[in-house]
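Limitations

Structures in this collection are predictions, not experimental determinations, and the ligand pose is part of the prediction. Treat each record accordingly. The example that follows, with zinc ion as the small molecule, is included so readers can see exactly what is and is not provided: the inputs are given verbatim, and the output is the predicted complex.
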Amino acid sequence: MCLSHGNIARRSVLAAGLALPLAAVTGTAEAAPAGPFAIVGARIFDGRRVIECGTVVVDAGRIVAVHEGAVHEGAGPRGLPVHDGRGKTLLPGLIDGHVHHTGPDRTDAPRFGVTTELDMVSDPAAHGPIRRQRRSYAPTPLSDLWTAGWWATVPGGWGTDSGLVFPLMEPGTDPAEFVAARQAEGSDHLKLALEDVHLITGARIPVLSETQVRGLIAAAKRHRMPSVAHATRQDMARTALSAGITGLVHLFSDAEIADDVVRLAVRGGAFVTPTLTLWSALGSLQNPATKSVITDPRVAPFLSAKQRGFLDAPWGFERPGVLETASRNVAKLHAAGVPITAGTDSGIPGIAHGVSLLVELELLVRAGLAPVEALAAATSTPASHYGFTDRGRIARGLRADLVLVDGDPTRDITALRDVSAVWRNGAPVTRAV
Ligand SMILES: [Zn+2]
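Predicted complex:
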């Protein structure tokens, strides 16, 4: 029981020189002001472990205190507005490890608790505002972005028919110069496109050679940039892993994962972002995993027209079995200790910002992750692999990107559908659309 007359709270809360009348705990149910305020009496998943009952104090966009233990009558942060967390679970703002968009309207993700997104291709013209925003602690309804900038592909390769004009890895291009140019443009990570569209059209297109892949990954390492690969075939993933890629931002579904590929991932310390949501959308026109989430009355009223537009867009074909194969591959990697991070590929048909990360986490649990492992896959795990020091956990000094949900997603991941409140930089996010 979170609210009690125990002594733990008196010790821990008073240690911070704060005192809160119990009456205040029952007071405010609405979103609290930008700060200071306290979220009291919630179960806390801090990104790594579960605190069954605690209090989090927020001020000026940051978490200023985390107290473990039950709230004691007469003890608490004196005079602070209080958000009642009883019966609820507080989580770090979620991180979507694979999205597409750099536009100014990024409100869809935070309304579902996704406060940070990792974009996987962008025009460098957008990089300045994106960087300024993520350094700021001012209230904002927008997600924070990290971006790949232009990805590495070859003439006639993946993305070259998009209408965009961008630098390519020509046969004579020096990989070191290519990576240096991306870093100078403000790319946060280097994205390698290893895609021959075998799943989409069956007609193969050119891809980066093994020599180019090795050169690009080695150059990214020298520039201290994470390198990530879009690889939808096992042989391409094997090449990237053997060259020392930081992470795979899809998990292939063309084959059962081979033992040597698992070993390469383990030995290289690579993380894997499976994007099961994508495989679910490609595997079946019915896409039951997404349907069950977006028709849930706890979710449906909060979907914007833009989200519905993506979710209702048809692929027009299906590739039965890809979700099942990718899910078995997740299970093998997870059992071998390979870090799994959650990502959706939002910004393409069948997948929408924010809400689709809830689908991804449910699919990761179905693939064999425990609910707390799935929650770590969307918080502390990507934060550590991408080097984020201000987010991904609930701890003193970190950015106050927080999600409060009804129920206990550390036991039942579907509780994430029941978002009660979201804060970006300590300011409440409006969920209504
Ligand atoms: Zn993508």
